[in-house]
């Protein structure tokens, strides 16, 4: 299996807007891209993980203004079912050109929905820009709460940012305290559905991005589809991104390949294990 | 051409072409019109023959076919001859055909229905269950009889309970784009070259697997909303993307804490949620090649290039 998927170009990049970088997760790629696409009329709106009714609980939202997109920036490390509002974005918001951000599994869902659009009459042909994000695994809301409140000893209300990197789970508080726990503590809280996922770098996004491979404050960007390539070129030309060649930065693509290989081989083993879990019977494999 | 000639019974004197997907830039004038003609010569030799068989349904699936708009004319002009259809073709008995699109479920108290579904199986090479009623029973599952003017009509089963079905197209109503995709793929499967056959087989395989499962007597694939619970969540596969909620036509699914919550009072058993779930079936070969496949379908539907 191709660990990094098909792509046309791969670079390290970050937004040139200090306003976006101020509280984006890394290079602010998704936020910047959607705001640029919105202002250029490439999209009419974007499906993003907006603020929910509980602290750090994301809620899928159709953002139609840069302000709404800015309000959704940053990673929440729990589930935002973005595909759930895809019909609403076309039917209720009347968007003709929809942007959507999602994890690799959500990009898979999107592409499947485009080829087999069961129950989505004239919705999936309105997808104008799909931004994929790197993802090792996800947590349910209660799992994330457990990790942050019980293990990191930080109240969700005082949490400023969470991050996963350098083998650790980081929790930053509003008053400047930093709490970290080894990633292996978090493993048992992972969402089980993530353990059969065979994609790390969102192979099916038009453009996919994540922090791994690039220095702090920057993001690695894969430009994958023809559509993504056109939009990316325009955005770089417009100067909304600062771009460096991926082989000029540390730690570079080797680390991305390493993590992708780890995830995919581990999950392939899990699929094999599931197939033989019982006595002469096993669990379903969605890929066959 | 195609549909219009079927409706008006026109006969075209046109040399037989063996290249159906060729662009039809300017429609050629009809050479001669014989209103008294009963049998139409097929203008394109290797079109497939297609029929729309109506059982107990609401005709919504038929409307969905029409909802491909101009696409319907392209399909009928270049790829398929409509040989049987309740509303469009004046044919009383089910003829031999390549593909039968069956809409609606079978009423067990209606002898004609049972006869017709058996005839369909005998005379069609490929039987497609078009829409929720045909595939899973859908709202007809909730029928209890006692209605005017046939109060004894009370039990309805999806067609797969009486005959083997080859392809399922779930959904209420089925999506016109899926019908279009399946029609193009069925054409490629029956008339295409080796590479096209391979692609069509890969595309249709999951829809055929759904039909195969539904055709088993002991099949448990009728619950739909429950399928998401039984075959995805209970199997530890759900990752909370929300596709099921988006695809539900009756808003029976909401996402609670990242997982689907199914209101079983609302579920009409149309099969849309389970079949659109990326964890019900997913092929990296087909879905990963989405750009080429969507491009090929668009090209097939716009042979003139506009």
Architecture overview:
The complex is a heterodimer of chains A (288) and B (306). Chain A has 288 residues and is an alpha/beta fold. Chain A is built from nine helices and eleven strands. In chain A, β9 and β10 form a beta hairpin. The relative contact order of chain A is 0.18. The model of chain A has no long low-confidence stretch (mean pLDDT 95). By secondary structure, chain B is α/β, with parallel strands linked by helices. Chain B has helices spanning 2-8, 60-66, 70-79, 111-123, 132-136, 176-191, 194-215, 225-233, 243-247, 272-276, 284-287, 290-301, and strands spanning 48-54, 80-85, 97-103, 106-107, 124-130, 156-157, 167-169, 253-256, 259-262. In chain B, the strands form three sheets. Chain B has a five-stranded parallel sheet, sandwiched between helices. In chain B, strands 4-6 form a two-stranded antiparallel ribbon. A two-stranded antiparallel ribbon of chain B has the order 8-9. The longest helix of chain B is centred in the last third of the chain and has 22 residues, at 194-215. The interface between A and B is large, with 58 and 55 residues.
Low-confidence stretches of chain A: none
Q: Identify low-pLDDT runs of chain B.
A: 1-18
Number of strands of chain A: 11
How do the helices and strands follow one another from N- to C-terminus of chain A?
EHHEEHHEHEHEEEHEEHEH
- Proportion in β-strands of chain A: 15-25%
What portion of residues of chain B belong to β-strands?
5-15%
Give the tally of β-strands of chain B.
9
Oligomer: heterodimer
Largest β sheet strand count, sense and barrel closure of chain B: 5 strands, parallel
Count of separate DSSP helical elements of chain B: 12
CATH class call of the domain at 47-221 and 287-301 in chain B: Alpha Beta
- The name of the CATH topology of the domain at 47-221 and 287-301 in chain B is Rossmann fold
Number of helices of chain A: 9
Largest sheet of chain A: 8 strands, mixed
Structural class of chain B comes to alpha/beta
Q: What is the gyration radius of chain A calculated from CA atoms?
A: 19 Å
CATH architecture group name of the domain at 47-221 and 287-301 in chain B: 3-Layer(aba) Sandwich
Keywords (chain B): Oxidoreductase
Organism (chain B): Methanospirillum lacunae
Enzyme class (chain B): oxidoreductase
Protein name (chain B): Coenzyme F420 hydrogenase subunit gamma
């Amino acid at each position: 299996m191709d660990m990094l998927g098909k792509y046309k170009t791969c670079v390290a990049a970050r937004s040139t807007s200090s306003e976006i970088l101020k509280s984006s997760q890394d290079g602010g790629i998704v936020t910047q891209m959607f705001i640029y696409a919105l202002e250029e009329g490439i999209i009419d709106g974007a499906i993003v993980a907006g603020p929910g009714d509980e602290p750090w609980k994301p809620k899928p939202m159709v953002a139609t203004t840069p302000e709404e997109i800015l309000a959704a920036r940053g990673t929440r490390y729990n589930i935002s079912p973005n595909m759930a509002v895809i019909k609403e974005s076309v039917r209720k918001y009347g968007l003709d050109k929809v942007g959507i951000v999602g994890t690799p599994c959500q990009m898979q869902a999107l592409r499947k929905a485009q080829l087999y659009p069961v129950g989505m009459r004239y919705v999936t042909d309105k997808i104008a820009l799909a931004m994929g994000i790197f993802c090792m695994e996800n947590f349910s809301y209660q799992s994330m709460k457990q990790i942050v409140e019980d293990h990191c000893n930080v109240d969700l209300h005082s949490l400023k940012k969470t991050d996963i990197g350098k083998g650790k789970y980081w929790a930053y508080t509003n008053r400047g305290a930093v709490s970290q726990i080894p990633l292996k503590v978090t493993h048992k809280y992972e969402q089980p559905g993530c353990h059969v996922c065979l994609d790390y770098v969102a192979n099916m996004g038009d453009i996919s991005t994540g922090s791994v491979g690039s220095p702090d404050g920057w993001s690695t960007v894969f430009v994958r589809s023809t559509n993504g390539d056109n939009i990316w070129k325009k955005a770089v030309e417009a100067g909304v991104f600062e771009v460096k060649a991926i082989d000029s930065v540390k730690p570079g693509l080797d680390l991305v390949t390493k993590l992708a290989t780890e995830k995919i081989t581990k999950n392939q083993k899990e699929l094999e294990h599931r197939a033989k879990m019982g006595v002469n019977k096993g669990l379903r494999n969605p890929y066959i | 051409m195609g549909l219009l000639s079927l409706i008006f019974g026109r006969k075209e004197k046109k040399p037989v072409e063996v290249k159906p997907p060729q662009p039809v830039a300017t429609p050629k004038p009809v050479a001669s019109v014989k209103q008294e003609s009963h049998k139409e010569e097929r203008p394109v030799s290797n079109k497939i023959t297609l029929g729309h068989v109506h059982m107990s349904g609401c005709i919504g699936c038929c409307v969905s076919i029409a909802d491909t708009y101009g696409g319907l004319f392209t399909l009928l002009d270049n790829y398929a001859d409509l040989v049987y259809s309740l509303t469009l073709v004046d044919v009383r008995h089910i003829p031999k055909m390549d593909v039968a699109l069956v809409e609606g479920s079978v009423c067990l108290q209606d002898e004609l229905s049972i006869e017709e579904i058996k005839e369909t199986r005998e005379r069609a090479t490929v039987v497609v269950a078009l829409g929720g009623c045909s595939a899973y029973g859908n709202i007809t599952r909730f029928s209890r009889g006692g209605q005017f003017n046939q109060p004894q009509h009370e039990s309805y089963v999806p067609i797969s309970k009486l005959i083997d079905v080859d392809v399922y197209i779930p959904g209420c109503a089925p999506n016109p784009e899926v019908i279009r995709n399946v029609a193009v793929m069925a054409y490629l499967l029956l008339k295409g070259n080796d590479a096209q056959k391979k692609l069509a087989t890969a595309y249709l395989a999951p829809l055929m697997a759904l039909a195969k499962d539904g055709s088993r007597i002991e099949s448990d694939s009728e619950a739909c909303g429950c399928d998401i619970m039984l075959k995805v969540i209970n199997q530890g596969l759900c990752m909370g993307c929300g596709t099921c909620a988006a695809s539900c036509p009756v808003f029976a699914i909401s996402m609670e804490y990242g997982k689907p919550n199914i209101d079983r009072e609302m579920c009409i058993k149309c099969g849309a949620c389970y079949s659109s779930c990326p964890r019900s079936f997913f092929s990296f070969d087909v879905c990963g090649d989405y750009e080429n496949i969507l491009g090929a379908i668009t090209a097939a539907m716009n042979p003139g290039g506009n």
